[in-house]
Amino acid sequence: MEAAATSQVSRPAPLIIELDPPKGSNLQPFLATALNLRGRVQGIRVTDNEHAIMRMAPLAPCLALQEKGFVPVMVINGRDRNRLSFQSDLLCAAALGITGIVIKEGHDPREGDQPLARTSGDLNLETMLTCASRLNNGKDLSGEDLDGATDFFIDVCLDLSDEASRNREMAASFSKLRDLGVQAVTLGPTYDLTIIEQFLPAAEQTGIKVRTSLLYLKSVTMIRYLNNLPGVPSIPQEFQKKMMQAPDKKMAGLQVAADFLRELQPLSDAVVLVSLGWKDRLPEFLNLIER
């Protein structure tokens, strides 16, 4: 499972990095990136066709990481599966020793590089969580006994672009997640601390861990683009101003992310560095935050 924070209050929240599998069969560049991060981050998540971009399935990269001594966490989405394949893939992961999973609904295929792809339409978030919970209890979704239960640490991604998910009754929502076997939630990227703070009382009440996500802002143009996307949490004007006023434009986005990380960490059991835009500059960012 992903590393948890120690009892030392002064220690910063663990960093978890998302890594995309290769778009092809060559795993060597993926493994080289992971090996360069050894000891600098406390967890590695392997994404599952993130942003609807076709890549290798996460299972093989997770197994390759295990062989190098890592304890990877596998992201799995419901967009590309029905309830049969979802359960089968989870059983396969468990048989190979993968114990950490992150459940996501998945982006719309029209956003990715295979816009003609169709979703199965068979799985919503509650069904996926029910599947994982029952597998942990030695049953399949239909209630049939399994020859060997799973032992997953279940994390679920909550999409902050869903206005309803932010405004619903948090305590009831988190209680339901806990009853479905969820042990942690990962909040989608936002630079608005007030959004994150809405989730904290319910998380503390239910004992569910909260992981926040940090997105590297490449440019002022990127901020404007994100702020014009319907339903996406707006990036506060102060961050756009910081980037515009920064003397070193190349470093501006990294410095803004580093400064915001300091604000995120006290609110988080861990901070997830999302895959979009991080791969090439991640070592530079880790140097900046002295990791």
UniProtKB/TrEMBL annotation:
Swiss-Prot/TrEMBL keywords: FAD, Flavoprotein, Oxidoreductase
Pfam families (alphabetical): MTHFR
Entry cofactors: FAD
Pathway(s) the chain acts in: One-carbon metabolism; tetrahydrofolate interconversion
UniProt keyword Oxidoreductase, yes or no: yes
Top-rank taxon: Bacteria
Protein family (similarity comment): Belongs to the methylenetetrahydrofolate reductase family.
Protein name (record): Methylenetetrahydrofolate reductase
Gene it is expressed from: metF-1_1
